[in-house]
Amino acid sequence: MLLQFGVEQAYTDYLIHLAVTLIAMMLALYIVFQAFRGYRRNDSQRILFLAIGLALLTLAPFSLSILGVSLGNSLGLGPRLYTFYLPVASRLLEICGLGCILYSLFIRN
Questions:
Q1: Please, what is the average pLDDT of the chain?
Q2: N or C end of the chain, less CB within 10 A?
Q3: Spatial contact of 86 and 46, defined as CB atoms under 8 Å apart
């Protein structure tokens, strides 16, 4: 009975995590879309780099998380994927996103 409850709880936890991640991704996508619209409307490179930075800061790590967990589970990859590779890749994407946002603050049109 304990094993069955543990498996059901893990599945429920995964679905809750997935739902929250998808909601965050939709909000991030809306924000990035609005920034991109601002770029197209004003033809401003600053806004373009802001949109790219926001996408790398928000959408890319979420997408990487979902993709990594899905592939990791289906391919049976070890725990190192979850404890090292995915967090490092996620932080690198966030650093690139922050760099783009910082660049957007300093460039001149």
A1: 88
A2: N
A3: no
Q: Find how far residue 98's CA is from the centre of its chain.
A: 13
Average pLDDT over residues 4-9: 70
Entry pTM: 0.81
Question: CA dist 106 to 2, 49, 50, Å?
Answer: 57, 11, 11
Total count of residues recorded for the chain = 109
Q: 59 CB contacts (<8 Å, ≥6 apart)?
A: 25, 28, 29, 32
The backbone torsions φ and ψ at residue 6, rounded to the nearest 5 degrees and listed phi first, read -65, -40
Question: Both tokens of residue 72?
Answer: 């990791």
Both ends of the chain: CA-CA distance in Å?
65
Give the angle 60-28-59 at the CA atoms, nearest 5°: 5
What are the structural domain ranges in the chain? Answer: 1-107
Average pLDDT over residues 39-58: 94
